[in-house]
Amino acid sequence: xxxxxxxxxxxxxxxxxxxxxxxxxxxxxxxxxxxxxxxxxxxxxxxxxxxxxxxxxxxxxxxxxxxxxxxxxxxxxxxxxxxxxxxxxxxxxxxxxxxxxxxxxxxxxxxxxxxxxxxxxxxxxxxxxxxxxxxxxxxxxxxxxxxxxxxxxxxxxxxxxxxxxxxxxxxxxxxxxxxxxxxxxxxxxxxxxxxxxxxxxxxxxxxxxxxxxxxx
Length: 216
Description:
This protein has 216 residues and is of the alpha+beta class. It has one domain (3-214): NADH Oxidase (3-Layer(aba) Sandwich). The protein is built from ten helices and four strands. It has helices at residues 3-9, 23-34, 52-63, 75-84, 98-103, 108-111, 116-150, 165-172, 200-203, 208-214, and strands at 46-49, 87-94, 154-158, 177-186. The protein is globular and about 60 Å long. The two termini are 28 Å apart.
């Protein structure tokens, strides 16, 4: 399958059968993630393949999550999806220290050049590690999703797991890892709907002459 055809074929599936993806196909999907590009070759991604028992536990916790945000969420829909899909993988990164992140919020010593240790932490945890490692994990997830599409496997990129990331991490005993997202892998129960995309004219910013070259 040509790459241009592959990326157009990929759609987010919201209704699945409970058919499992074969171990051989899941192995190919994970291997595709491992060869993704990563900042400074840190390869921060870690993959947790959930058992049925774990999927159901997490789905129950998501369904019973008390929404104190005042926002409309899709967490219950995601919970149902996790329960019904054949396979679900959680993607982690190395743990980011909240203590170190808090230290960079007061930059005065940095500006005065008096806190060398904090300058290193600022670079490592903000300018470098957090943003770059998240982007690296995103590249790995994209590889997984496109490989699954090539194999005829449907996918859903799951971010609603982050509403209960502390609950999930405690349950799986992964307190030293940062939960980034989940991905569902399985076979559709009904055809997904193709959603609209913004036009290039809206998305490309910069010099007018350069924009016109790409937006003809």
